[in-house]
Amino acid sequence: MQPEIRKFVSFDEEVLIEGFKPVAGVWRTFAVAAVVTNPWAGRYVEDLKPEIMAFGPVLGEALTKRIIALAGGGEKIEAYGKAAVVGLNGEIEHASALIHTLRFGNFYRSAVEATSYLAFSNTRGPANAPIAVPLMDKHDAGRRSHYLTVQFSINDAPRADELVLVLGGASSGRPHHRIGDRYQDLKDLERDLDNPAGI
User: Fold this and answer.
1) I need a labelling partner for 189 at 20 to 30 A (CA). Which of 25, 69, 173, 182 fits?
2) Distance of CA 133 to CAs 25, 49, 61, 143, 182, Å?
3) How far is CA 196 from CA 106, 127, 146, 182, 189, in A?
4) What is the pTM for the complete model shown?
C-alpha cells in the first residue's frame, strides 16, 4: 500500500526588510507540501492504522528530503513545524492521522537534530484554502522569537478527496523580536515550567 501523490509544492520567502527596518542578512521561511489522495474520503473508517503505518513513513521521508534540500541543510533550520489540510470530503481526523505519528514527524526531527516537539495545525478546506504552518524553535519550546507561521495556499488543492501534508521551517526567529521569552513571564508569575498555570 502506497500513498497516491499528485504533486509536491514548495514555498520559499526571503524577507529583506521587516517592520520598516532592514534585516541582518536574509530571513527565510519555507515549506514543502505533498498533495495526496485521501484514502478515507467520503466514508467513516474505524481503523485508520493500516494507512497511517503505510503512508506516514513514505510521506515523512519524502517531505523531509525536500525541505532539507530547500533549506540547504538541516543545520540551516532553526524553527520547524508541520500541518495538514483535508479536503471537504474528509474528516479533521484524517488530517491528524498522517501527521500525528512518529512515523511521519521523526524523519524531520532527526534531520534537523531537534529536541522539541513539532508545532502543528490540522484543518479542513477547499482548494486554495490557507495553509498555516506554526513553527517553534527546534530545541527550545519557550523561545518566543521563533514562534512563527508560514502561510501559503495551493490553487488546486486540496480537492474534496485529497489531503495536503506540509513541513515548514525558518532560518531564524523574527528579525527584530522584542517580546522576550516565556521564562521571564513564569518567573514574574512565580510559576514553573512544569506548572505554568499555577494549579
Assistant:
1) 173
2) 23, 24, 18, 17, 21
3) 27, 39, 20, 10, 9
4) 0.94
Per-domain residue ranges for the chain? 5-188
Angstrom distance (rounded) from CA 133 to CA 109 = 15
Q: What is the CATH number of domain 5-188?
A: 3.30.1330.110
Written as nine digits, the cell of 197 is 498555570
> Rounded CA gap, 114 and 97, in Å?
22
- The per-residue pLDDT for range 51-69, each reduced to its tens digit, is 999 999 999 999 999 999 9
Upper half-sphere CA count for residue 63 (Cβ side, 13 Å): 39
pLDDT in tens, 141-179: 889 999 999 999 999 999 999 999 999 999 999 999 999
β partners of residue 148: 135
